[in-house]
Structure formats: structure tokens, C-alpha cells
Write a structure and sequence with these properties.
By secondary structure, the chain is an alpha+beta fold. It has four helices and eight strands. The chain has one domain: ph1033 like fold. About 20% of the residues lie in helices and about 25% in strands. The protein binds a DNA duplex through loops. This is EVE domain-containing protein.
Length: about 160
DNA sequence: GCCAACGTTGGC
DNA sequence: GCCAACGTTGGC
């Protein structure tokens, strides 16, 4: 069987809810709460264990990449869609054909914050989806070239 | 708090 | 299937 190529992603999280420190403390976290079909489809159809993840802090005083993680499970139903006490409860999601799917993410390491300004200023990152005007997608693919630039040139040590 | 961008909903 | 209204995201 041919070895699958590693893929790369940027995943946004609001640090008030789950920061890189939350992930570090937990070790792994289920990526709950995604309620956007495009982002769900990435988790359900495309992500694989071992894929690299740029952990991004959004909607906070210092938005930017705060650490590295990796996908560590296959897709499975997001349990919060069935929990009436959860803010992510979706009463329209059928039990037998759950609407929302997630993957687990494992902590690798924290990094000094790479701000949006840092990303915008760095050659080779101009096309990153997260930098596009009006972008709201919480999970976006990162190209191997972008991953290499970010992890090798913007993250000191290793 | 503002507001641009964009996804979703629902009437028709 | 169109599209206006509405809600949410997320940087600033």
C-alpha cells in the first residue's frame, strides 16, 4: 500500500474557549463545535491522522498561530450536537445520521505567536487562505510550501 | 463597538 | 431556484 502524503491545515480556535494551553494540558482534544459545512467536510472527508496542524488563536487581542498540533483520529460524530446543554446543540441533527463530524487533535508544541502581520509580511505566504479578506472558514488547508516556510522560517528552534 | 464578508434561512 | 433578510465571524 502506498504511503499517504502528510497534509497540512490551519485550525482556528478562540483562546477563551480552547487555547494552545488548553490543548497542551489536555494532550488531545476533540475538535467540537464546527458548524460550517465546508470545515466539516475537511474533517470528514480529507483529514487523516498524522496531518500537521497550525493552531490559530482567533477573536482575541493577539490573533495568530500559537502552536503546532496534529490530527490524531479519524472522523466521528461531534457529541455536542446531541447535548441540549451545549452551545453547539443542533436539534435538527438526526441521531442515526449525525450532521456534524469532528476529528481529535494532539498537542505537539507551543510556539512564539506568529501574528497576522508576520504572516502577511513573509514572502511566500501571500496566498494563505486565512489571510484572505473576509475569510471566515475555521479550518483551511495549508500548502506544503506554506507549511515549510512557517515551520522553518517563522518558528525559532525546533 | 464597528462593519465587511459571507453562510444560512425561508418566502415566493 | 431566486434572493432578501438575517445571523455569525473575526479583524480592527
Amino acid at each position: 500500500m502506498a504511503k499517504q502524503e502528510q497534509q497540512f491545515w490551519l485550525m482556528k480556535s478562540e483562546p477563551d474557549e480552547a487555547s494552545i494551553d488548553t490543548l497542551q494540558a489536555a494532550g488531545t482534544l476533540p475538535w467540537t463545535g464546527v458548524r460550517n459545512y465546508q470545515a466539516r467536510n475537511f474533517m470528514r472527508d480529507t483529514m487523516r491522522p498524522g496531518d500537521g496542524v497550525l493552531f490559530y488563536h482567533s477573536s482575541c487581542p493577539e490573533p495568530g498561530i500559537a502552536g503546532l498540533a496534529e490530527v490524531c483520529s479519524g472522523p466521528y460524530p461531534d457529541p455536542t450536537q446531541f447535548d441540549p446543554d451545549s452551545p453547539y446543540f443542533d436539534p435538527k441533527s438526526p441521531r442515526d445520521t449525525p450532521r456534524w463530524t469532528l476529528v481529535d487533535v494532539r498537542f505537539i508544541r507551543k510556539t512564539p505567536l506568529i501574528s497576522l502581520a508576520d504572516l502577511r509580511a513573509h514572502p511566500g505566504l501571500e496566498e494563505m487562505i486565512v489571510l484572505r479578506r473576509g475569510n471566515r472558514l475555521s479550518i483551511t488547508p495549508v500548502t506544503p510550501a506554506e507549511w515549510r516556510i512557517i515551520t522553518r522560517e517563522l518558528m525559532p528552534r525546533a
